[in-house]
């Protein structure tokens, strides 16, 4: 179940002398605005040449307001959030549902919430709900992820 304290700041009150440990229910988040350059660079690396990302007329003809950011580029926020807080994390799985388009220069908030944590040998298997929202709180991506974490100590980003 998604906790309604959506944009609660897990790192509030954090100081370099205190240690935060990941627990079920904790939120980690990152905001990002995807530029035209981001889409172009992603296209070069992924070979995604879909005209919906580059041709405004094509995008409008397909029913969009303008060119859209590739969904997988937006979803790249999730492994970045996890790896930046847990260096050495191994991303194991991700499910995604693309709910609404993201347009170039829109601010997107990526949020991951820990839903389950298990100790396996000397590492932790953590499951997360993963969501991306437009600046007005509208859900654009919904999913779940699993990652193997070397520690539950959260690095301050």
Automatic annotation (TrEMBL):
<dbReference type="GO" id="GO:0005739">
    <property type="term" value="C:mitochondrion"/>
</dbReference>
<dbReference type="InterPro" id="IPR029069">
    <property type="entry name" value="HotDog_dom_sf"/>
</dbReference>
<dbReference type="InterPro" id="IPR050965">
    <property type="entry name" value="UPF0336/Enoyl-CoA_hydratase"/>
</dbReference>
<feature type="domain" description="MaoC-like">
    <location>
        <begin position="28"/>
        <end position="123"/>
    </location>
</feature>
<dbReference type="GO" id="GO:0019171">
    <property type="term" value="F:(3R)-hydroxyacyl-[acyl-carrier-protein] dehydratase activity"/>
</dbReference>
<dbReference type="GO" id="GO:0006633">
    <property type="term" value="P:fatty acid biosynthetic process"/>
</dbReference>
<protein>
    <submittedName>
        <fullName>Dehydratase</fullName>
    </submittedName>
</protein>
<dbReference type="Pfam" id="PF01575">
    <property type="entry name" value="MaoC_dehydratas"/>
</dbReference>
<dbReference type="InterPro" id="IPR002539">
    <property type="entry name" value="MaoC-like_dom"/>
</dbReference>
């Amino acid at each position: 179940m998604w906790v309604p304290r959506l944009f609660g700041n897990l790192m509030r009150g954090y100081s370099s002398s205190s240690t935060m440990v990941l627990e079920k229910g904790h939120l980690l988040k990152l905001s990002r605005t995807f530029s035209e350059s981001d889409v172009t660079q992603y296209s070069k690396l992924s070979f995604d040449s879909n005209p919906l990302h580059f041709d405004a007329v094509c995008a409008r003809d397909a029913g969009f307001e303008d060119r859209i950011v590739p969904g997988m580029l937006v979803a790249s926020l999730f492994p970045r959030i996890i790896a930046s807080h847990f260096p050495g994390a191994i991303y194991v799985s991700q499910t995604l549902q693309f709910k609404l388009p993201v347009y170039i220069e829109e601010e997107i908030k990526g949020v991951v919430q820990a839903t389950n944590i298990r100790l396996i040998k000397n590492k932790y298997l953590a499951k997360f709900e993963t969501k991306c929202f437009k600046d007005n709180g509208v859900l654009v991506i919904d999913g779940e992820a699993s990652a193997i974490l070397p520690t539950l100590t959260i690095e301050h980003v």
